[in-house]
Write a structure and sequence with these properties.
The chain contains nine helices and no strands. By secondary structure, it is an all-alpha fold. It has one domain: Tetracycline Repressor, domain 2, CATH 1.10.357.10. α1 crosses α4. The chain starts with 17 loop residues before the first helix and ends in a 5-residue tail after the last helix.
Length: 208
């Protein structure tokens, strides 16, 4: 009597780990960009076939949103620590930009990939509203953090009475975004440090 071949289990492989898969797919998006990343790339990185990838994460846009959520959750504590670090306003801002540079350079010691949001998906924001909304939300959150910092500095007397925390926050967050772009474009570290110092002089010239 011929035995029937045992049916292969369906669904995700037993060794599937969601966080590991998200981390692997983050690297693909970060290096190739959102548009250039294919479903085959994501399947290869995660170790999942297409049906399993859809079951676990959804379509490509949903995969990226899942990657983005995990990325934000990982870097947020580092930014919060930088924003609340002791020191003068100038020292704190410099520490925030240093933290950003460290995040942008993570696992890529010879250069910088920039921010995942900016480097991987900004150009696709107009084609995928969900991705665009997610990026904008994170940019606005960063601006709110800077606004809190400048308002605190003003209340502590470190900024003059006429200082506008909201306007300064827009400028500082713009520098934060520009730092990502310049790092991804390959600007040397020494040049980047000079850029940051010059921008800090503009943002808070009266700060100690």
């Amino acid at each position: 009597m011929v035995q029937k071949e045992q049916a292969k289990p369906r669904g995700r492989p037993r060794q599937f780990d969601r966080e590991t898969a998200l981390g692997a797919m983050r690297e693909v998006f970060w290096n190739k960009g959102y548009a250039a990343t294919s479903l085959d790339d994501l399947c290869e990185a995660s170790g999942l076939n297409r049906p399993s990838l859809y079951n676990a994460f959804g379509d490509k846009g949903q995969v990226f949103l899942g990657v983005l959520d995990a990325y934000v959750a990982a870097v947020r504590p580092r930014y919060e620590a930088a924003f609340r670090a002791p020191g003068t306003l100038r020292q704190v801002i410099k520490g925030i930009f240093r933290t950003a540079a460290e995040i942008y350079r993570v696992m890529d010691q010879e250069g910088g990939r920039g921010c995942l949001l900016i480097g991987a998906a900004l150009t696709d924001a107009t084609r995928d509203p969900q991705v665009g909304e997610a990026i904008l939300t994170q940019l606005q959150d960063m601006e709110k953090g800077f606004q809190w910092l400048f308002a605190k500095a003003k209340a502590d007397g470190e900024l003059p009475a006429h200082a506008d925390p909201k306007a300064l926050a827009k400028l500082a967050s713009s520098v934060h975004t520009a730092l990502s772009v310049r790092m991804r474009a390959g600007e040397p570290p020494e040049s980047l440090r000079g850029y940051v110092e010059a921008m800090i002089d503009i943002i808070c010239p009266a700060a100690a």
